[in-house]
Structures are given as structure tokens and as C-alpha cells.
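Re: Re: C-alpha cell formats

Sure, here are both.
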Amino acid sequence: MRCLGRNYVTKADLPIVIRVVLSTGPVQRVKILDKLLSDGKEWDTSQITNSLEVSRPTARKTMIELTILGLVDMYPKIGTEDNIEHTNEEKKIWLKDKFKSWLNTEEFKELRKGEGLD
């Protein structure tokens, strides 16, 4: 990417920005993000553990990281208790609407593949 003396990013710069962010992010975060994007639904701790073949603590840690980053909402799975003493209870996450609306567009998918450059 050539800076050309700019102090701003253009749409033409986005494919490389997206590629760098997703390739340098922690692998589990990117995998969970991909899962959330693939079906647009919520994922719970057990689904993430089984699908990504990671330990429950790793799944929970990554779910918390995505919540702290502000990408997802996380809540106790219905039918489970949630308080400080029940830190291993099942949780569920889903993408926040403000991200879901753009990350699921064809435009983002093309930019992620490095396409859509004008």
C-alpha cells in the first residue's frame, strides 16, 4: 500500500487493511468471527469448543475478548445460572448489529478477498 503522503485511508486501501487485521489477530478470534459471519446466528460455548476443537477455557477467554473489543454481545445461555461463582456456565455470543450489517455484505466479502478495487 502506498501512502502517497496521505494521513487517511481510502476504500482502495481496505483490502490490505482487512487482510492485515485478520491475519495478525489471534487465530481463535478470527475463527469465531468467521463462524458468526457464516450463519449470522449466535454461538454458545459448547458449539465453539466442539467446532473449533478448543478447550472450554480457551473458548470462554476468546468470547470474553470479543466482548471487550465490542464486536459481540455475550449473555448466559437461557436455562443456566450466571454469577461470579458460576464462571464455567454456558454463554452465548452474537455479532452486534452495527457490525453484522456491514460484515455480511458482498462488499466486505469482496474487499476481504482483495476484490472490489476501483
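Second one below.
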Amino acid sequence: MENTWMVIFPEILIATGGLLILLAGAFWRGRPDKLLFILALISPAAAIAAFAGLPATGLSLSGMLASGGYTRLFSCLVLSVAFITVLFSFQYGRKRGFEGEEYYGLLLFSVLGMDLVARAGHWLIFFLGLELMSLSLYILVAIRKGDTLSGEAGLKYLITGAVGTAFLTFGIGLWYAGAGSLSLITDFPSRAGAGDGQLIIAALSLILVGIGFKISMVPFHLWTPDVYQGAPAPVTAFLATGSKVAVFAFLIRLCLYMQDPLWMVVRPVLWVAAFLTLVVGTVTALSQSHLKRLLAYSSIAQMGYLIMTLLAVKLESGLFALAFYLIVYAAMDLGAFGIIASLSGEEADRDSLEEYRGLGFSRPWSSAVLSFCLLSLAGLPPTAGFVGKVALFKAVLQAGSVSLALIAVAMAVLSIYLYMKVLVSLYMRPVTGTLPAGPAGLYEQIGGGLILLFLLWSGILPSPLLSFISGIVPL
């Protein structure tokens, strides 16, 4: 029993933090904004410390939770995303009046769901974690009650999320009918090639559709630009990074333990999905004149690079490249949307590219962080995005998908134009709109500084992080 409590101790810390925030907001007199903010920071930080002390036991709780090195890496990554999101949210939430217990509590419950998804070794844990994550995000997207754009985004996300969940539930049901078990790891290799293989293929088809909705995979991506644009900027940052990392961590495990006959069926599907997601995401982003929509289509394209690398997940280099790029992707997108939050006013987010004209000189620190995140998304040196894309392309070439790697390189070159559009507005256009009122808050500067240092350090000296990843047992 003691060992069981230790295995789920990080989750207990996150849940306790969320409950304390709700109780403090309900019973504390006045407006305990600072207290709620501190609790929201302490909870993910304490959970990260708890994960660092967990033994690498592989599978726990009768195979339902994974506790190996890669699992802890992704769990700590989504917790770090939550920590930075809280930093970006303090001043932004105060301006707009949703800095209360509902926001921070739902943020922690959502990251609890993300953690369970990343750790899931059983379809039941995966489904429960995914629904906890999604239900919290539906409310967070529409957290601004008087904002019609936010409410519309929440409704669209709810409807598309429900459709994805329906596909996923049906797929899991078929999986159980074909495999006779809901265990992902312990029964997967022995059951996938049995006489019910066709049923397993049908189950995986539905499951991939459900997961495709969650990671904005083409053609299940249409909700993404509207939701990203309508949601508050810190929520968009959290949604674009934490949820994608958690679901992709599970998808990596699913592909990693897939038996070869079934993998030969799934591999062409992933090839087509990667191709469509790369091309549609990149080409559509070129015509965008609003930064949040541009970054939404950019995140779709980034998912294309990651889906492409799933073709090499059986190789050690592919596994390391996926882990490295997921870390870098989380930092890049979190920084970009976080800076949008710090530059926005009280009424609406600063979204149109015209509103960013000349801000490179009036808000040099925030503009520098945003520019570096965009350069990293473009994959230009000396950023971490350059190292990550090189690792992805190398792994895909080693897996034999030369044509897809060439297409990805072409899309990477094409994407430089769309990121440069933003830099031109920041530094090469005169100011035409209203300037942001006052400098960025202290916590926003800390969050932006942490991301800038990480992207620069990982781009110039990636060896420590790569060595750390390569030393982790892939479970």
C-alpha cells in the first residue's frame, strides 16, 4: 500500500492543490488573488519534485500507470507548461477579471488529466485522463463570460471534442472486443496478431481519428484556428502545448509497443496524415493576417513534423528526436502565446499583425522573446528549433521515408516566410495602433526569460539535454 501511494503521490499533490485553491477562493474573505497564484505555482513544482524522487519502476498499479523514464519526462514537461502558464496568467487574468479560484483550479485539474494521459498504460486511465483534461479546457477556453468570441470558441471546442471522444470511445470498445483486455502494454504484443486482428485494425482506426481531433491532425483540425483565436492567450498557450504533449506521449507509447504486422498497416496511414498535416498547416498559415490564427496553423504544421517522426519511433534516434522536439515545441509555442498575453490590452488580445507594428522598439524585451520563439519555430540557428528539426529529419531518413523528409524540408523553408512577416511588423514598420499600456509584469518577464534562456541554451549547447534524454529508459 505504501508503494502504491508513492506511485500516485505526484497526482495527489496536483489534486490537493486544485482543491485547496477552490476552497481558498470560496472561504477566504476578500480577493485572495496572490494566495491562489502561489498555490497554483507550488502544486506543479511540488509534483515535479515528487516525480524526480520516484523510482523507475516501469509499470505500476497492475500495469495501469507507467513510471519509467520517458513517462516521467513527459509528465514533468506538462507540469512545467502549467507552471509557466500560471506565470503568464497573473497580470493577464487581473486585467480581465478571471484570476479567481475557477481559473487556477481548472488549470490544475486539466494538468492532472494531462499527466494521467502521459502515464497511461491502460485504456481506462487514458480515457479518464483525457476527459478530465478536456472538460477543464472547455471551461477555460470560455472563461471570459462577457466575451462572445471566447464563448463561441468554447462551444466549438466542446462540440468537436465530443465528436472526437465518441470516435475514441467506440474504438476502445472494439479494442476490448478484439483483444479481450484494456491493457495497452502487457497484452498488446500478444493479442494484436491474434484471429481478431481485423477488429483491432478497426479499433485503431477509430482511436486515431479521436486522437487526431486532440492533436489537430488534418483533416480533423478545423476547430483549431477559431478556438486558438477566441480563447484567452494564456489558455491558448496551455491548450496548444500541454494537451498536445500529453496526447503525443501516449501516441508514442501506442506506436512503440505495436506489433510488426499491425505496424505495417498503421505506418502508411501515418505517412499520409503527416503529409497532409504538414502541407495544409504550412500553406494555410501563409495567408493569415492575425497572429493567433497564424500560430494555430503553425502548430498544426508542427504536429505534422511530429507525426512524420512517428514513422521512426521504432528506432532509437526517432524516439530521442520525438522527445527532444516535444520539449522544444512546448517552449516555443508557450513563449509565443505567452508574449501575446503580455502585450495585450484589457479588452481583447493583440492579434492583428498591424497591431504589432513597431513594438520591437517600444516593448523590446517582449518583442525579443517573441522573435526568438518564432525563429525557433522556423527552425533557424542558433535556436533549439533548428537542432530539433535536424534530429527529426535525420531520424525520418534513417527510417527510409526519404520523400516525406524532403517534403518536410520544403515546408520548413516555406514556413520561414510566415514567421518573418511577424518580425517585419515588429522591427521594420512604423507604429500605427495603440501601444501596450505599461511594461510586462514581473511574472510574465520571468516566464519569458526562462523560455528564452532554454531555447538559446538548447540551440547552442544541446548535448546535455540530448544526453539526458538518451539515458532514459523508453517506457
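Confidence is low (pLDDT under 50) at residues 189-194. The longest strand covers residues 59-60.
- S.
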